[in-house]
Design brief:
The complex is a heterodimer of chains A (139) and B (119). Chain A is α+β, with helices and mostly antiparallel strands. Helix content of chain A is 19%, strand content 37%. In chain A, strands 2-1-7-8 form a four-stranded mixed beta sheet, with no helix packed on it. Chain A has a four-stranded antiparallel beta sheet with strand order 4-3-5-6. The chains are: A alpha+beta (139), B mainly beta (119).
Chain lengths: 139, 119
Amino acid sequence: MSVSRLQQLKGHILAENKIKEMSASPSPLTTHVLNTAQGVPGSNMALRLYRQDPSTNTWNLITTGTTNDDGRCPGLITKEMFTSGVYKMLFETAQYWASMEETCFYPYVEIVFSINDPGQKYHIPLLLSRFSYSTYRGS
Amino acid sequence: MSAAESSPLTTHVLNTSDGVPAARMALSLHRLDSNLKIWTLLNIGTINQDGRCPELISGADFTAGMYKLRFETGSYWESLGKTSFYPYVEVVFTVRDQDQTFHLPLLFTPFSYSTYRGS
């Protein structure tokens, strides 16, 4: 193989890695849903992220998603869109339990939180059973 | 409400960061109007020194439906000179059987909270 051909291939490989890096730029806001009753990730749970419009106090939908097998939902928001403000995560908890033919005390869970420094990372887990839930600011 | 007729819905709010009841926290109880899909304010109250708020609702008023307890956690922390991650906490729950009692505690810190259906 010629030197120039090798250099060409090296260029392709490095470019591919660059593209992967850019698309993998992680969301500054993440979540993790855990079904603590069964000791498994809360997978396939529908969720929505909203930001409050400070002038009207109405909620603007930013992202609709579903948790993956690991109970996570990558790509919730981009760094550019993640401005200071009041946000709300809505988790469709009753729907989740209904898919397992169980009822849930909570038709949904809404967690409203304030972002004053969007340069930081924010991790919002939800630990959930049919009759309890907890959340915290994690890392 | 007489002493014999206590509210079928009770709460207990605990500041687990300082290990004290969340005295003087404001809260409100709402019911979802099933036709209009809007929340109706039923009662407002203040947490007492024991972290409780008696007489939230009467047995007669506590019909089956979807309810929301809203706790003014942000204002509470502000009154203590602290910031917190959550401007308020709303717990939305379903009452299918109005003859049962429902105890909804809230354990919270500036950066976490948990709730459960207790007794």
